[in-house]
TrEMBL record:
The lineage of its organism: Eukaryota, Metazoa, Cnidaria, Anthozoa, Hexacorallia. GO terms for cellular component: membrane. SUPFAM superfamilies: Growth factor receptor domain, SRCR-like. Keywords: Disulfide bond, Glycoprotein, Repeat, Signal. This is SRCR domain-containing protein. Residues 1-25 form the signal peptide. PROSITE patterns: SRCR_2. Disulfide bonds join C182-C192.
């Protein structure tokens, strides 16, 4: 009987240990999470989450300093890894002015999180055809969430949220995307494989969301502005490029490069249908330079040799010379040689996706 009582008391104590509040001023001797984890809301966690840090002294998840949006594990709450607006992260401190460095604020994005509980989670909304719409959760997974979190500069993804668990969109909002299939390394959600815009069989009860791990790297002190920004003349600040630009110079609208699937035309990134006619000399290894075109892929249909394109060079292997009749490329490029003439000619037609 005594042994059974001892076991019963032991079980009660074990249950009490599971429900110790991390904010309690009382503690039980010997109660601790294993090394590398911290007590929060009755659970031992390896990552405390945004706004909290793992206190190496108490073994608990505790709140970051008020200026920090996220902070690092340790014995103090003010080792910041990102800051609340209008402050900037400089090293591990949140500052109002970057001093000799440049201040860099949030970029323009055509994607956003409709806030749920924290700054790092929400329903995914994407801007298209001058309207904000939602994304259906059909095939929505962690790779899709990774792209969203990276695009928003909110760190890695913690969870891909389905069934509108972070809130449904308005019935007035369109559902822009469905069956999104990201590899996880894309720079923008729109670059992932997906059916045509607005093509879906979903309701807003299926709106997709994400939870990101942080840190928020949209407000920083930097030495160089980097992609999506330009140096503001006469100021220690980085201006923000238009959302369509990958890089820009001197002003937000002066694009110098574009993120696929857009193409650079002059100083503007556009979705275009472009036809370029050029001559291919009849040589063993002919090359055709296509100016200001990136991210195009071309190949000859069988039985002709493959034509490979990297960046702005279309390489035509010597086997192309044996093609005595015209042939279409899969991309819509037309290659031919006039009878008795020593050179090939090509009319290259690039058909980009519909405007975004």
């Amino acid at each position: 009987m005594g042994r059974m009582c001892a076991v019963f008391i032991s079980l009660i104590c074990s249950a009490l240990v599971m429900f110790v509040d991390h904010g309690s001023t009382e503690s039980l001797v010997g109660v601790a999470c294993k090394p590398g984890t911290f007590l929060k809301n009755y659970y031992c966690l390896s990552v405390c989450g945004p706004g909290f840090y793992g206190n190496s002294v108490t073994g608990k998840c505790e709140k970051c300093a008020s200026s920090c949006r996220t902070c690092l594990d340790g014995d103090v709450p003010n080792t910041c890894s990102s800051c609340k607006s209008p402050l900037y992260i400089q090293g591990t401190s949140c500052v109002q002015s970057c001093g000799q460095q440049r201040s860099k604020g949030p970029p323009y994005r055509q994607i956003r999180l409709a806030r749920a509980g924290t700054h790092f989670e929400g329903r995914v909304e994407i801007y298209h055809d001058k309207k904000w719409g939602t994304v259906c959760d059909d095939s929505w997974d962690i790779n899709d969430a990774k792209v969203v979190c990276r695009e928003l500069l909110l760190g890695d993804a913690r969870e891909a949220v389905t069934f509108a668990r972070l809130g449904p969109g308005s019935n007035k909002q369109p559902i822009w995307l469905s069956q999104v299939n990201c590899k996880g390394n894309e720079t923008r959600l729109e670059n992932c494989d997906h059916p045509a815009w607005g093509n879906h069989s979903c309701g807003h009860f299926e709106d997709a969301g994400v939870r990101c791990m942080g840190p928020d790297t949209t407000r920083e002190c930097v030495d160089e502005c980097g992609e999506g920004y330009f140096k503001v003349k006469g100021q220690k600040a980085c201006g923000v490029c238009m959302a369509s630009c990958l890089t820009c110079a001197m002003s937000e609208a002066n694009c110098s490069s574009c993120d696929k699937p857009r193409f650079l035309r002059g100083n503007t990134c556009k979705f275009t249908v472009e036809t370029v006619s050029m001559e291919i000399p009849l040589t063993a290894s002919a090359k055709l330079a296509i100016p200001n075109v990136a991210h195009a892929r071309m190949e000859l249909l069988p039985p002709f040799a493959q034509v490979a394109m990297t960046t702005d060079i279309l390489t035509a292997p010597s086997a192309l010379r044996t093609a005595l009749r015209s042939t279409w490329l899969k991309s819509g490029a037309y290659v031919w040689r006039e009878k008795g003439q020593p050179t090939w000619r090509a009319a290259l037609k690039y058909i980009a996706p519909e405007p975004g």
